[in-house]
Design a protein that fits this description.
The structure holds three protein chains of three kinds. By secondary structure, chain A is mostly beta strands. Chain A is built from three helices and ten strands, in the order H-E-E-E-E-E-H-E-E-E-E-E-H. Chain B is built from five helices and five strands, in the order E-H-E-H-E-H-E-H-E-H. Chain B is globular, with a radius of gyration of 13 Å. Chain C folds into five domains: about 130 residues, Up-down Bundle (Four Helix Bundle (Hemerythrin (Met), subunit A)); about 130 residues; about 55 residues; about 180 residues, Histidine kinase-like ATPase, C-terminal domain (Heat Shock Protein 90); about 150 residues, CheA-289, Domain 4 (OB fold (Dihydrolipoamide Acetyltransferase, E2P), Beta Barrel). Chain C is built from 20 helices and 22 strands. In chain C, the strands form five sheets. In chain C, strands 14-18-19-17-16-15 form a six-stranded mixed beta sheet. The chains are: A mainly beta, B alpha/beta, C alpha+beta. At the A-C interface, strand 4, strand 5 and strand 7 of A face helix 10, strand 21 and strand 22 of C.
């Protein structure tokens, strides 16, 4: 498994968000949970859904669509929370649904376009095409709270 | 044949180092924290040699050695004094109390082992 | 994860821990000596001895690890203490101060030694000279103890005359005296040690042996003539006799082949080969005991009955544990409590009778879990004594710097507090103590004018009180200068000029950010670190700080901290559909409001009239942003909370659900601090409830309890 890191392959977990496909490096995914109502945190940013109980730990949940500048997912039983870990923080990402696990050679990843009207552009690390569909690879560290103070 | 040693010192660090040096060299070691404790431990063992610090609470090294020498069976038990100085008066005082020899702190483990063999065989 | 440590590294780490204990013992002894001096008596020998031994032990251990600066410092300090215990030095209170200062520097030196064995802290030389001066100008300090690493014996290949083709022959005459045997030395071992140096011939000289019927078996009557061939040097050969050179005659000479002219022919003693058994077991059973039991009796009175000595058995056998492991254990136990609560809830919802076996089993389980939790919490608890001793040093330094005489009194040093809390209390306490010395206490002459003692007293106390730890810092100084405080607050725009403030409210202005009375920049505390920073630090620990002051008499800061950082007694309430927890310790009472209780205060805020006073009203649902303020609060339930300054607040909740102990779960720092929210917990139903900090909430609250007028009236 670890050899893949040294070779040119990357494993991604892809998911759907507002009719688009995104993905994260599978190495940062801890687990996938069904939707649970989160306890809201007062005076928190609009994309913070609140916190949920993850086996006795208090886990913050981010509405990923809202975070990327799109209309919020809101959340109901059809949605999914992807628990990721990055830079010592654990966070749940609320998304529409999980799609697939993809294994890609790294050289198939393209850098994101420099200029884009897409609000989500700043959070994208790379792009790739799989079976004719464009998959955006998320830059987790930019999504996590504390990384940016958004004006948007 | 394993030699048994009783070592008495109020410093935990010194006791730890004695344990490290002597058990490595194959001695069976008993430890005590001050002169009174030393006498208590001594009552239950038959050491081939005794090592004792001078400055200790409750009963200091000189008192301890005198008490040990006062016991018939320990009239000639080798007793080494652990001292931080090699001042002649200190040696004389130790000798008068009945000490067999002395080791200067910080001790060098091989020297200590050699000294023990020199007095205990 | 833990690899086996190099044993010497482990002992070294343990040494530094031992040093802290020794430093503590030194402080205790010095405090006792200081008390005795104050009462006009000279300190007693054993107390001085305790101090001496502490420094001596630090020196001994330090030498083993090559901590040269620490060895040098401790050696000089110990020498002064030796003069004191030998009675060659009389100590005055003034001199005691210098000794205290030297001990403080010793503590610095110990901590520095861990990082840099050769470095000395600032002021070390001065401190040492000062105390050496007390002894009437000591001569140059005694020579350093022998270094640990010298060339072991036996390595003889570098020594010996370079031209010598082979080993040298030596002749050695060894004649023990009585004292050699009395000292427990055994010639056999020495002879064997010689034999290890090379081929050896030993002849026993029994010419002085008494006839059997007159034999004194204790007396030394035997000598040995030895011929040894060895490449070892003279010194190496003689070193075999290191322990006996004062109790035997030893003559060593080189042999150049044959006896040589002029030296007397050796006597022809019978050749006796040294037997493998000890040579001296002569049969006479001697009744005479040269060391009568009187010697033991003499030793006994020397035994010190001082209660501060270690008890004989493994005094407080301890284990060193990684803090990470303890924290992990604390976390796991916390989760155990949560899961057990969830289980209890599910069981009760499943409709099992309250007296069923399952329920009573669960109750037993719950009590067991509580016990485990209490025990685990106390693992991390430590006495506050070292912290208080540190404050004693701050008092010494601070008072010296501003020319005031100050004494620190402590109470409850043995009170145990979580280790993290102790660490995080150090800075706030330091600041408060410095403030007390600097601003709280008056100068000696001023104090005398006021009929007080020259010496100012600061009292530092710790105690457990109703499930919390209460730490108080009080002084008997001039109290808070309220007019001045008010003036400064107005100048800084912190309060409006005509504001009506009670005494307590004025005192609390000190806690506002940006407040500082250091218009005289004193040597110590005028650095802009205000009491607001202290307050924040206390609050970050889940604690509260309050202040009481009496003009002319003094000021008292009271810090209340949770016993553990992980568990809280709370009241579970419902607000706007959300479940919240309010710390029980903050709640004074609960009440239901009637319309007549509620009065308008400003355009949007209200107060309630309760118990003859007015208390500001806060709508929790609105403050937390869950909903807009209500149209009317008649019939609403309020929790009356108390702030540390004595002022109160009334918090509107929809429903009070229960009181229970909850496990505190921190909220990750990624979102910054949410005003009013301290942490979170997980309830029995698995849902998360936020834990509020009422004091913080009120401070940041809007106080909006009414919609703007145009929304209400036509």
């Amino acid at each position: 498994m670890t050899e893949d890191r040294l070779t040119s392959e990357l494993e991604l977990l892809s998911f759907r968000l507002a009719e688009q496909e995104y993905s994260v490096d599978i190495m940062s995914v801890r687990e996938i949970r069904g939707w649970t109502r989160a306890t809201p945190l007062p005076h928190s940013p609009h994309y913070m859904r609140g916190v949920i109980n993850l086996r006795g730990t208090v886990l913050p949940v981010i509405d990923l669509a809202s975070r990327l500048g799109m209309p919020p997912v809101e959340g109901d039983a059809r949605n999914v929370i992807i628990v990721v870990q990055s830079e010592g923080q654990s966070v749940g990402l609320l998304v529409d649904a999980v799609s697939d696990i993809l294994a890609l050679p790294r050289d198939q990843l393209q850098p994101p376009p420099e200029i884009s009207a897409d609000a989500a552009a700043g959070f994208i690390q790379a792009l790739t095409i799989v079976e004719g569909r464009m998959i955006r690879v998320l830059d987790l560290s930019s999504v996590l709270p504390g990384y940016r103070t958004d004006a948007a | 044949m394993t030699l048994t040693v009783l070592a008495v010192d109020d410093s935990r660090t010194i006791r730890d180092m004695l344990r490290l040096a002597l058990t490595d060299a194959g001695f069976t070691l008993h430890l005590a924290e001050d002169g009174m404790h030393g006498l208590e431990v001594l009552a239950g063992i038959e050491p081939d040699a005794i090592i004792s610090d001078i400055n200790m609470p409750r009963l200091d090294g000189f008192g301890f050695i005198e008490a040990v020498r006062g016991q018939e069976r320990h009239r000639a038990t080798p007793i080494l004094v652990l001292t931080t100085e090699s001042a002649p008066e200190l040696k004389a005082r130790a000798r008068n109390a009945g000490a067999t020899g002395w080791i200067v702190k910080p001790f060098d483990p091989p020297k200590l082992v050699k000294a023990l063999h020199m007095v205990a065989g | 994860m833990a690899q086996p440590l190099d044993p010497m590294a482990e002992i070294r780490a343990s040494f530094f821990v031992e040093c802290e204990e020794l430093l503590e013992a030194l402080q205790d002894a010095m405090a006792a000596i200081s008390d005795m001096l104050d009462q006009g008596t000279q300190p007693d020998g054993e107390t001085i001895n305790v101090a001496f031994r502490a420094v001596h032990s630090i020196k001994g251990g330090a030498g083993a690890f090559g901590l040269t600066a620490l060895v040098a410092y401790a050696h000089r300090f110990e020498t002064v203490l030796d003069e004191l215990r030998a009675g060659r030095m009389v100590l005055e209170p003034e001199g005691m101060k210098l000794i205290f200062a030297a001990a403080d520097i010793l503590a610095d030196q110990v901590r520095l030694a861990n990082a840099d064995p050769t470095a000395s802290p600032e002021g070390a030389e001065d401190a040492l000279r000062a105390i050496e001066g007390l002894t009437g100008g000591l001569p140059a300090p005694e020579p350093e103890p022998e270094p640990a690493d010298f060339t072991p014996l036996g390595l003889s290949f570098d020594f010996g005359p370079p031209d010598e083709p082979g080993p040298t022959a030596w002749r050695l005459r060894f004649t023990p005296s009585d004292a050699l045997y009395k000292s427990g030395n055994e010639p056999l071992h020495l002879l064997r040690a010689l034999a290890a140096l090379g081929p050896i011939e030993v002849r026993c000289d029994v010419s002085r042996l008494q006839p059997l019927d007159r034999l004194d078996p204790i007396a030394a009557q035997i000598g040995w003539d030895i011929r040894l061939e060895t490449g070892s040097t003279r010194d190496e050969i003689l070193s075999v006799f290191d322990f006996v050179e004062d109790v035997a005659e030893i003559e060593l000479s080189e042999v150049s082949g044959d006896p040589g002219p002029g030296s007397p022919p050796p006597e022809p003693p019978p050749e006796i080969v040294v037997p493998p058994e000890p040579a001296a077991p002569l049969p006479a059973p001697v009744a005479a005991d040269p060391h009568p039991p009187a010697a033991t009796a003499a030793a006994a009175p020397r035994a010190e009955a001082k209660p501060d000595a270690h008890p004989a058995e493994g005094a407080g056998a301890t284990v060193r544990v990684d803090l990470d492991r303890i924290d992990r254990l604390v976390n796991l136990v916390g989760e155990l409590v949560i899961n057990q609560a969830m289980l209890a809830q599910s069981v009760s919802e499943a409709g099992l009778g309250a007296n069923s076996a399952v329920m009573s089993g669960l109750e037993a389980f719950m009590m067991l879990t509580r016990d485990i939790q209490d025990s685990v919490m106390m693992i991390r608890a430590q006495p506050v004594k070292p912290l208080f001793q540190r404050m004693a040093r701050i008092v010494r330094e601070a008072s010296g710097a501003v020319g005031k005489e100050v004494r620190l009194r402590t109470e409850g040093e043995g009170t145990e507090v979580d280790k993290t809390v102790i660490e995080r209390l150090a800075d706030p306490l330091t600041h408060m103590i410095r403030n007390a010395v600097d601003h709280g206490l008056e100068r000696p002459d001023k104090r005398l004018e006021r009929g007080k003692s020259r010496e100012g007293i600061i009292t530092l106390s710790a105690q457990h009180r109703s499930g919390r730890v209460v730490i108080e810092v009080s002084d008997d100084g001039g109290g808070i200068n309220r007019p001045r405080v008010r003036e400064i607050a107005e100048q800084k725009g912190l309060i409006p000029p005509e504001a009506q403030l009670s005494d307590g409210e004025i005192d609390n202005l000190l806690f506002l950010p940006g407040f500082s009375t250091a218009s005289e920049v004193s040597a110590l505390s005028g650095r802009g670190v205000g009491m607001d920073v202290v307050k924040q630090a206390i609050q970050a620990l889940g604690g509260r700080i309050s202040i009481v002051s009496e003009p002319g008499q003094g000021t008292c800061f009271s810090i209340s901290l949770p016993l553990t950082l992980a568990v809280l007694d709370g009241m579970v309430v419902k607000v706007a559909g959300e479940t919240l927890v309010i710390p029980l310790s903050a709640i004074v009472e609960t009440a239901t409001l009637s319309a007549g209780d509620i009065r308008m205060l400003g355009p949007e805020s209200s107060v309630i009239h309760i118990r003859g006073g007015f208390v500001p009203l806060y709508d929790l649902g609105a403050e937390l942003g869950y909903r807009e303020p209500r149209a009317s609060y008649a019939g609403c339930i309020v929790l009356l909370t108390a702030q540390d300054d004595g002022s109160r607040a009334a918090l509107v909740v929809e429903e009070i659900m229960e009181q229970r102990q909850v496990v505190i779960k921190g909220l990750q720092q990624g979102y910054g601090n949410i005003p009013g929210v301290a942490a979170a917990t997980i309830l029995g139903d698995g849902k998360i409830a936020l834990i509020l900090d009422p004091g913080d909430l009120v401070q940041n609250a809007t106080g909006r309890t009414r919609l703007p007028d145009f929304a209400l009236t036509g």
